[in-house]
Amino acid sequence: MNTAATPTTVARSLEAYLTERSSGRRLLMPYVTAGVCPDWLELVDAVIDAGADAVEIGIPFSDPAMDGPTIQEATVVALETGMTPAHCLHRLKESQFGVPLIAMTHYNLVYRYGHERFARDLFEAGGWATILPDLPLEHASEWIDTAAAANLENVLLAAPVTSDERLRTVVDATGGFVYVVSTMGTTGARAGVDDAASVLASRVKALTNKPAVVGFGISNAETAVAAAAKSDGVIVASALMRRILDGSSIEEAAQLVADIRAGLDAAYTP
Question: How far apart are CA 10 and CA 79, in angstroms?
Fold first, then answer.
């Protein structure tokens, strides 16, 4: 598996790691649904080799809150193969990839698994943070405290309709980075990225030095470059999972990540 070293000056902090990685370049975070294909761990390895700075690992849940049709389909495939949170974390622990892993899932799974047990197992599996989009900040203190005790951060999302007051609260409380939702709606690749993404990213950057990373709608290098204009990077999820679901090989799917990496570097690296 990929064993690329993390920056030697950075402690186990996703925010510090991404801040250092984003110096002079844009961040790229692919998303992989655990169990989407038999060799999903090889896909994680391949997207790291293609230029990922961190990888979101989707732990499948039967009742998703924000997932569009592609991620829902990937989730169904994974669940039908028997993927569970415990199996996912066990397989990741065996692999130990060389970049931070970020668990993206739903709070019900964390709650049923047990806060302390989930935090411990995720950390041991190479996890640096969680994204729990259905856990409101007002009810997240117990998980955030447990995660912090296990040296994990919890990433919060900001949407184009987020008020100035709420945005400041999210920016202050988020760990790792601010997940900038590019448009209202569910996840999914789109032909273009709304101007709202740039407006929201600018609002975030006016409040904090924490990385602002845009997700939802990133489908290719062109949309990634547009979304990264005012942000620190992008997340590519549905477009990558669509390739796998449509039968692309690991190498063919990872080429999408390589193309986006090349586009970002060409547009923004001095």
Answer: 36
25-264: which CATH topology? TIM Barrel (3.20.20)
CA–CA gap between residue 67 and residue 119 (Å, rounded)? 23
67 catalytically annotated: yes
Domain ranges of the chain: 25-264
Catalytic residue among 15, 45, 53, 56: 56
List 53, 67, 121, 153, catalytic entry: 67
CA 67 from centroid of its chain's CA atoms: 13
Strand partners, 101: 55, 127
Tokens of 45: 């390895």
DSSP per-residue letters across 28-77: EEEEEETTSSTTHHHHHHHHHHTT-SSEEEE---SS-SS--HHHHHHHHH
Query: What is the pTM for the complete model shown?
Result: 0.91
pLDDT tens-digit map of 160-181: 989 999 999 999 999 999 999 9
153 flagged as catalytic: no
